[in-house]
Amino acid sequence: MTQIHFPSGFVWGTATASYQIEGAAHEDGRSESIWDRFAHTPGKILDGSSGDVACDHYHRWQDDIALMKGLGMQAYRFSIAWPRILPGGRGAVNQAGIDFYSRLVDGLLEAGITPFATLYHWDLPQVLQDAGGWPARATAEAFVEYADVVTRALGDRVKHWITHNEPWCASLLSYQIGEHAPGLHDWHAALAAAHHILLSHGMAVPLIRANSPGAEVGITLNFTQAVSASERAEDVAATRAFDGFFNRWFLDPLYRATYPDDMVEFYKADGRLPAGGLEFVQSGDMTTIAVPTDFLGVNYYTRAVISASTLEQGGGAPDSRLERTEMDWEVYPEGLEHLLVRLHTDYQPAKMYVTENGASYSDPPGPDGLVHDERRRTFLRDHFAASHRAIEAGVPLAGYFVWSLMDNFEWAKGYTQRFGIVWVDYDTQERIPKDSALWYRHVIADNGFDTAG
Ligand code: FCB
Question: What is the pTM of this model?
């Protein structure tokens, strides 16, 4: 028997993010975000594009809901644009922004689709960046104000809240590696940013619970499964450091109320942190961050093979035996199984959702007008199967969101990467469900599939 079934009540959906799909960058009172500024800075985006128009979802949301309904989606993870809600970062509320998401939520509920709302998927109001951005503690306070406004307005209908998407990206990738907005190269700022993002999560959770009775509240982290290139002691140590940099730096505060000691020493040793260490951590912060949550959101795309010599470059030596997606990421489904089991063993989140998993392949529509994205379908099939093995091993995995509902603005890569299970023609805004979407519809309907199929 190769047929597998997921537990009853398992939630199947897709995910998107505001800046990647909405467009309407200057409409209805939305202010500039750090991504608008970054995308319009020459040289930052591979194809010189921006999210100004993107998938025009701001105007096409009703069609997009109909599309999801047609594909049998049970849930939809989207994010809310802070600059639409509080154009000044804090203070005056822009009712038009609230109304947009309120209509979206009503439309989803009418279509029988459960909304999962992410409060922060990277579009910080530029005015808050000008005042210091995430390295400034005041930004955490501003986030709490924003989270309060949103959850008061939508908390009666949205019952699944994700405070932050991928704090590693919003801090290290943005303030140190400089690949994402605001594009800085400063270790200390990046680690302070990470702290204030985590702090803002911890501060917001009790408020969200108060504003949205009975809601599930969690946070989404991105993980790269770190695999040592060899058994040599220095490679194993480098792998542990990479895991500390990428994964444990966020997991330990959230689940153990502490930063990993080995990493604090590591950062101090080479001057990434001042000798005094984490001076931005104030008394009580770690307890605030470690507030119990209802779930951990897991974003998984690939692994990194680490050796002492590659650690310096911040990444791993790809194993050439493995296929890669167009992001140049190795296809490694087993990594998802190992990751879920490891998270369950080491940190015991109350439950988990895979909040993102998917693949970039640019197969265009063929002569028949359809998109035969067999590689994406196989990718999803193998990752679903890996998560099913984790469930059988006892992992409390409650749902799965494919990244992404549709092709969209892939951050620094612009429109050069296509992650959608629905094709988007950016000239006409036509949407075409790809073969992977049609296959996914059956998986959802059957709550399972044939692993050999
Ligand atoms: C994740 C992001 C998401 C998308 C995918 C490919 O890091 O959360 O917005 O860009 O990668």
Answer: 0.98
